[in-house]
Amino acid sequence: MGLSFSFLGSEEIPTAGPPPVPGLGDLPESCVASVLVYLDPPQICRLAMLNRALSRASSADFIWESKLPLNYEDIIRRVFGKNDVFPKDFCKRDVYSRLCRLNSFDAGTKKVWLNKTTGKTCMLISSNGLSITGIDDRRYWSRIPTEESRFRSIAYLQQIWWFEVDGEIEFPFPAGSYSLFFRLQLGRAHKRFGRRVCNSEHVHGWDKKPVQFQISTSDGQKATKQCYLKEHGRWIRYHAGDFVVTNKNCKSIKVKFSMTQIDCTHTKGGLCVDSVLVYPTECRERFQRF
């Protein structure tokens, strides 16, 4: 009996180990979401891939509503119209994701999207959405299909005396500062043996007088700028001017813009006109050269 009790008493009683260390997955979703709201969208998406708790917290509507423009509903109506093209049951994360795509409107002549990182509004207007003097006369202009344009088509000027390109956009831009650019190229590019080659045969007249860019807005803002077109064979964004949207009600603003060289003492030609870009001014330094 004594041996038996001694044996029982010699067994080690298992002791409880240290409590598990709390991890991110143990935090309440509301707390995690309150932290995620201070991050930019790419950071939120990267964290959402770490575990399920972060993934669930990252889908909170208040996070993504803070990233959307204040007037995002006006933008949706302007781009998608009043029909049911834009799903009404989208959560705010899905709304943000959809608006970050290149969304075409106005018969495909314009594209608008949100910058994925900042949520700022950007826009492209194709050459088909511009008013170009003489565009229907094949002696002066021609439409050329190309993969170098987001719209798969550009306007090519062979030769003309009176050069004028005008455009207009009415859009509910969110409050902020915007810069407008013309995307142009001197010379006509094509592929030869798989390599890009630019033909500058028709390029002439742009060194005689500068091109004048103008923009004006429905609330009285105006800007004028002049520059010579010099570099051949490369697409260049020429800065035409800036405008500011200050309306707190985020109503639509009308912006008119033009590019002219109407000195009829000489002809000019060999110019490709692709599109007009409207970007938040803080992005301007990234690609501005002229």
From TrEMBL:
- F-box domain ranges (all copies): 21-67
PROSITE patterns with a match to the protein in the record: FBOX
Pfam families, A to Z: PP2
Instruction: List the CDD domains.
Output: F-box_AtSKIP3-like
SUPFAM superfamilies linked = F-box domain (SSF81383)
Q: Which domain of life is it from?
A: Eukaryota
Q: What is this protein called?
A: F-box domain-containing protein
What organism is this sequence from?
A: Penstemon smallii
